[in-house]
Amino acid sequence: MYGEPVTQLIESLSRLPGIGGKSAQRLAFHIIRMPKDRAEGLADAILTAANNVQYCSICCNLTDSDPCSICDSVKRDANTIMLVEDPRDMAAYERTHEYHGMYHVLHGVLSPMNGVGPNDLKIAELLKRIQANDITEVITATNPTVEGEATAMYISKLLKPLGVKVTRIAHGVPVGGDLEFVDEVTLTRALNGRIEI
Fold it and tell me: Is the pLDDT of residue 195 over 70?
């Protein structure tokens, strides 16, 4: 209908996560209408990222240098590791400017229903890292989903015999949220995670 180049572009875009057929079509037409230099810049950015981004050999974050800038920093607390599901979660914590330890990125969570097991995550790398270094605490910061909770529990059971303190981030009522709309599990966690003021 649109010719082979446009059809191929739409099909390629529709393979991206969260992009359906109509969104792929809109993106394709947007790209085609771009000035040629901007379209080439987009293509170059994609190729540069694909060719230069790798996993950090320490924390498994995505980086263009190894080790990444966080693992390479002498200002960070090297004895504490925050365990996150995704590089975006790590970036969210970095934006708070409140956490000054190290990270470890799992690149997912355990999900037997989706065929994701321990060998599909960066768990072996975490265990090697803990055994080779003087890690005193691992903060599990996986999302409060069934899979996130199961992953946190699984890793906690793996780490306890190693003598490492394993903690879980608190979950509770979001700032600006109305209690009447918050589910019971969240309210219970908020109550159990209360602190003195």
Answer: no
